[in-house]
Write a structure and sequence with these properties.
Blueprint lengths: L11 E5 L5 E4 L1 H6 L4 E4 L4 H19 L12 E3 L5 E4 L4 H18 L4 H9 L17 H7 L12 E2 L1 H4 L26 H13 L29 E3 L3 H7 L22 H9 L7 H5 L4 E8 L2 E8 L17 E3 L6 E3 L15 H4 L12 H12 L7 E11 L8 E12 H4 L10 H60 L7 H24 L4 H4 L7 H15 L4
Helix pairs in contact: 2-7, 14-15, 14-17, 15-17
Length: about 550
């Protein structure tokens, strides 16, 4: 019988730090040598994020049960496979002290302990891609038991092409991906290691084109992949070990209590499907990181794998900030609840710095909710001094859908980062008004205000050129160039800040640079003008509009 086990066989792409070359490794190799790898190096950044979450699920599962000396915590009883049998809730202070010690000892050692490899060995059957319980899949009998008779495997319906699972192509049977990175002959072919990576990615970034659903008493819609609903945030370290550790959230600092972690492979399949059909949200991070959007079954034919897919409904996303660390949140003003902030085509060009207040909410901002990933970093800095004055690299990656309610096919990938000193990000100044996050948010708002003035200038030019109806589209397209011109200098300004800086001096330095950039983009625009721009009405031509823009700049940047 064929076997490919993710624990021992190579399938994860990493970038080796010494040779700067790609390498395929198994789970054991990755955890054993994480400090020697610069980063994950899959086919796309979104795929790397999906794999990162799987790795984090393994780590949080093990180190929420066993400490850095491979000793089981005294509040939990494990069975022979190191899964939770019974547990008690330790006092909050004890939990915080014990798990913090585990995290710090691991981080300082630069290595993961034998407990990881013991867990993988004892649960190795769950990671066999062809096993009796195939990894991230169900058997033929299980699949048939969960779908309608007309959708059973022998009917041959409900399949998903490999070229649709491959998110670099995402070609369905109804539309051809013209600019795909593979020719038509190779679009529907994947090596085994590629298939595994894309299968995990597909569970996270699933659209809604497939029609087969898991049978249920009540009607339900197929969910999109959970990660597809987020505007993610995570941390990148200097190597893969640091990245894994900095994102290893062992408890919620705001509500420290012991929560048994249960990744999807530890779940009873029937109970898991029942829970999903009831739309019950996960109660632990490991489950969230490994949540399924589809029941997948692979039939292995001579011509290649045939993937059957049955949709599961989405779970309730309201106030899930306690079980989803890697997201920013938006507040619904009608009900006061927080929901994941999804990135769309309309805002895909917005750089991370423009959402600074969502990543790092300032005091008094009740419209934002701090990401658990950022809150965890803040806790680590206070309690373990993990970084001192080191730089923190906040990162975001993901896939944006086409917005079509009946497809949600991938339309674009985004990837961005924001480097900032830890003493700046987590400023502990006694003077709250002097704290760097609030000062940075002031500069972000100043950038936006100048951007709005440039937009109004473009609207005036658009009205001269195209009339009232065409002005809006023209201004929207052209105004993006202003923000693009700010991206590099403003992120450099942020990364150059330190906790010891004079706030006023640094802010004034940025204002001066902002003025120069704002005037340069105007000058560049005026270099190419049409006769109609000049011959507009007496009180409305491009030069008058430009003067109004300059006056507006002087008003908002009077101190710069």
């Amino acid at each position: 019988m064929q076997s490919f086990n993710l624990v021992t066989d190579p399938w994860i792409k990493v970038l080796d730090s010494d040779t700067n070359s790609e390498k395929l490794v198994s789970l054991k190799e990755l955890f054993r040598n994480a400090g020697s790898y610069r980063q994950l190096a899959g086919e796309m950044h979104a795929q790397d994020l999906a794999i990162l979450r799987l790795l984090e699920a393994i780590l949080i599962t093990v180190y929420s049960r066993v400490d850095a000396d491979n000793q089981i915590y005294d509040w939990v009883v494990l069975n022979k496979t190191m899964q939770v049998q019974t547990y008690e809730n330790p006092a909050g202070l004890k939990l915080v002290k014990t798990l913090s010690k585990t995290w710090k000892k691991l981080y300082e050692s630069g290595n993961f302990t034998d407990a990881i490899f013991e867990y993988l060995d004892k649960n190795i059957t769950f990671f066999d891609f062809f096993g009796q319980r195939p990894f991230y899949q169900v058997t033929a009998e299980q699949y048939d038991s969960f779908v309608e008779d007309k959708k059973k495997i022998k009917k041959g319906s409900g399949t998903v092409d490999l070229m649709q699972m491959n998110r670099l192509i995402s070609q369905s049977g109804n539309s051809i991906a013209i600019f795909a990175p593979k020719s038509s002959t190779w679009k529907n072919k994947l090596s085994l290691d590629e298939l595994i990576r894309w299968l995990i990615t597909y569970q996270n970034f699933t659209g809604v084109t497939d029609k087969t659903k898991v049978r249920a008493k009540e009607k339900h819609s197929n969910s999109r992949g959970w990660l597809y609903t987020l505007n993610p945030i995570f941390v990148k370290g200097n190597n893969l070990f640091q990245t894994l550790m900095l994102n290893l959230v062992l408890f919620n600092p705001s509500m420290p209590e012991y929560v048994p972690q249960q990744p999807v492979w530890e779940e009873n399949l029937i109970e898991y499907v029942k829970k999903r059909l009831s739309r019950i949200k996960p109660d632990n991070i490991a489950e969230t990181y490994t949540v399924w959007s589809r029941l997948l079954h692979i039939e292995w034919k001579e011509e290649g794998p045939v993937v059957f897919s049955a949709g599961l409904p989405a779970f309730e996303s309201t106030n899930t900030f306690d079980i989803e660390p890697m997201s920013i949140w938006r507040k619904n003003r009608k009900d006061g609840n927080f929901y994941p902030a999804t990135k769309g085509l309309s805002n895909m060009g917005i750089a991370m710095w423009r959402n600074f207040g969502q990543y790092v909410p300032t005091l008094g901002n009740n419209e934002a909710k701090k990401s658990l990933a950022v809150e965890w970093l803040n806790f680590l800095k206070k309690k373990t001094d993990f970084s001192g004055n080191k730089m923190i690299n906040l990162h975001t990656s993901g896939i944006i859908s086409n917005g079509g309610a009946t497809s949600l096919m991938p339309a674009a990938e985004f990837d961005d980062n924001l480097r900032i000193e830890s003493d700046v990000l987590f400023d502990c100044s006694e003077d709250k008004a002097n704290m760097w996050p609030a000062r940075i948010e002031e500069m972000v708002e100043l950038n936006q205000e100048v951007g709005r003035k440039y937009y109004r200038f473009l609207m005036e030019v658009g009205q001269i050129r195209f009339g009232q109806q065409g002005a809006g589209d023209f201004a929207a397209r052209q105004s993006q160039a202003f923000y693009d011109s700010l991206n590099e200098p403003f992120t450099e300004w942020i990364s150059g800040l330190t906790g010891n800086d004079n706030r006023e001096t640094k802010q004034n330095a940025w204002k001066k640079e902002l003025r120069q950039l704002a005037l340069k983009i105007l000058d560049d625009f005026l270099d190419i003008i049409a006769p109609r721009d000049i011959s507009g009405e007496k009180d409305n031509n491009i030069f008058i509009a430009a003067n109004r823009y300059r006056c507006g700049l002087n008003k908002v940047l009077r101190n710069g």
